[in-house]
Structure formats: C-alpha cells, structure tokens
Amino acid sequence: MTDPAVPSFRTFILKVANRCNIDCDYCFVFNSVDQAARRLPARMDLTVIRAAARRIGEHTSAHGLRTVHVVLHGGEPLLIGVRHMAALLETVRDEVPARTRVLFELQTNGTLLSDAWLELFEQYEVAVGVSLDGPPRANDRHRLTHAGRSSSASAVRGIELLRSKPQLFAGLLAVVDLANDPVEVHDYLAAFEPPVIDFGLPHATHDAPPYRTDPSVPEYGLWMSRVYDAWLARPEHRHSVRMLEDIVALTSGVRGSVETLGLAPPSSIVIESDGSVEAVDTLRSVEKGASRLGLDVFHHTLDTALSHPKLLHRRYGAAALSEECRACPLLQVCGGGYLPHRFSADRGYRNPSVYCADLECLIRHVQGSLRQHGWNPFSRAASSS
C-alpha cells in the first residue's frame, strides 16, 4: 500500500552515461567533492535499463500517475550511441503502463548532435535541452574540452541543427558567471530562439561559498535582475526564463516548475548507470556520499526511497527549513533555496541558502517590477488570471 501523504516521484533521471567529452570545471558530476561517477559504469547497460524501467512502471501504477518525465542525463548522454539509446527508449516505453504518458527529456552539451540523433528523438518525441553559458568568450571560461580547447563552435553547430526540428528543442541551460555580462549572455542565448532559457546558480555551500568580488553585495541577485530587465525590455522575445517565471508564479500563489524555489516537495529521483537509486545528484557538490541512499533497482522499489531518511525533507516542507527561513516573508517564493545550497557541516541543511541575499534581491526586484507595471502579484485576481 502506498502512503497518500507521501508525494510520489514524477521525474526519473536516468544517468545513462558517466563519461563526458568536455570538461566543465564547475561540473558537479566530475569536478566536485564526490567523485563517485568516475567509478561507475561508463554507460547504463540494457539489464539495468530493464530493471529501472520496470521500477518506473511499478511506481506509476502504484500511484496512478497519468504523466511522468524520464530525463536522460550524464555525463554526456549522447556518448552511449544512437542504437543503444533507441533500445533504452523502447524499453522504458514498453515497461511503463500504456495509460501513462512518458515525456522523454534529454540534457546534452550539444557537440555530438547529428541528423541520426534527431531522427531518433523525433521518433520517441524526446525534448532536447542544450547547455551553453553564452557567447564563446563567456562559454569558454568553464566549458572546455579535455584538451583545453573551446567547445563553443561544436555546441552552436548542434543547437542550429536542433533548431531545424523546433518541436524537439526544449531550451538552453546556462550557469551564471559574474565575470560575464548578463545582458550580453541573455541576448546571445535568446538569438537562438529557445522556448526556455534556464539560468542556474553555481553549486556552492556555506563551507565552500560561491565566488564573489564583494561578499557584502548580492551580486548573483543583481546579475539575474539585469537578465529580468533585459527579458522584459524587448516584447518580441517569445522565450521564458524559468527562474524568473517561477518567481512570478510563486508570488501569485501558483506552483513553480523547478525544485530550486518554492515549498512544493521535490518530485525527482536519480537512477545511476549501475542501477543504484540516489537523491538529487547535485548533492555531490556537498560532500561524499550525500546523494547515496543504499538502494538499487534490482532489490528495491522506488516507493522504498520515498520514506528514506535522506529524503524526509520532501514531506516536511517548511518544517525542514531553518528558523531564519521559516520567519522570512519571502518563504513561499524562495522556499529556502535549493537544497544543496543550504548545506554546512555544522547544521546540515538547516541553513538559509548560501544565495539567500541574492534570492531576496532578485525576488524583490521582480515583485517591484510587477507592481510598477500595475499588476498586484499578491491579489487573488492576479493568481487566477
């Protein structure tokens, strides 16, 4: 029997490859505290895929899920090859009940995209997101090949190829870098006409704080505030900026779409290339073993993970946060910030985000803009419009 009080998983992240053809210096998989991925199988074999797919199907049936997201991740997922990927997609589709819609998503650095890949993704309706931090000078600050060469031209070639199949183009993912100009980065990414631009803050903790030129200034919040202003300044823009739209949605009482903001319980679980079941893999930036649950798809149902001690924060919401967060007037929007960014060795995850001041700066900037434009984001009328 499932416990209706415990929210089910709805997003299943399959780490189909544990190698990458580029070497991003901020990568939480290969260049952070926990290096476990380097010891895992280079790719998820069909035995693991079948077991994982069965567990996903079992979970969807137990919870009566109409739609689930299966995210193909790495490393670089395209390293597993077209034929192996086809077998993986077919296996997942076969094992999940026919009444459940499977939305496949894939995150890639874009350098290996080809016509053959697009044909496969079209067949299985795989939405493809590409990681790119901005124009070449900005992108190549962190996203170089293993030989230290630029990855920009190859990534842009892949994006342009993907644009020929706009129904497959899920958007662009960029990591915020204070050394880059936010307006230049935004406008460069917007020129590819992605449906979504997703900006992420560099993974950091209170023990290993993010780079700042002046710790007394909310530089990341100001950076993203300039992105917000650039996004609004040109009405011809058709893309969304996920972090910013989530702030607007959460401000008006609507649930956001990501786990980095708001109080909705996280809905994702990770299945590694060896079949182990893990918490959100960005916890590898926190400490060794932070994401490990001691479970695997051969011996444990995914419902077992629902009640794992490391995932209890999913059911406790605001009660799992620090006193400072619970007393904050921005709690419903910020949600305490992203789980890995709250960590310290002294207090675990009961801290405000290491980006607390930045999130406050950005949220207040967005809310102030909404009021300035004559829309009260706090009214019931606004939330229902």
Mean pLDDT: 92
Number of strands: 12
- The percentage helix is 25-40%
Low-confidence runs (pLDDT<50, min 5 residues)?
377-385
Let me know the CATH homologous superfamily: Aldolase class I
**Secondary structure tally, helices:** 14
State the end-to-end CA separation: 39 Å
Could you name the CATH class?
Answer: Alpha Beta
Report the portion of residues in β strands.
5-15%
The neighbouring-strand order within the major sheet is: 9-8-7-5-4-3-1-10-11-12
User: What is the total domain count?
Assistant: 1
Kindly name the structural category. alpha/beta
Encode the helix/strand succession as letters: EEHEHEHEHEHEHEHEHEEEHHHHHH
The coarse silhouette is globular
What is the fold named in CATH at topology level?
Answer: TIM Barrel
Radius of gyration: 20 Å
Q: Based on the structure given, which CATH architecture is correct?
A: Alpha-Beta Barrel
Largest sheet: 10 strands, mixed
Summarize the structure.
This protein has 385 residues and is α/β, with parallel strands linked by helices. It is built from 14 helices and twelve strands.
Question: How do the helices and strands line up, and which of them pair or pack?
Answer:
Blueprint: E1 11-15, E2 22-24, H1 46-63, E3 67-73, H2 82-95, E4 101-108, H3 115-124, E5 127-131, H4 136-139, E6 143-145, H5 152-163, E7 169-175, H6 182-190, E8 196-200, H7 219-233, E9 240-241, H8 242-251, E10 268-271, E11 276-278, E12 292-296, H9 302-306, H10 313-316, H11 323-326, H12 331-334, H13 356-372, H14 380-384
Parallel strand pairs: 1-3, 1-10, 3-4, 4-5, 5-7, 7-8, 8-9
Antiparallel strand pairs: 2-6, 10-11, 11-12
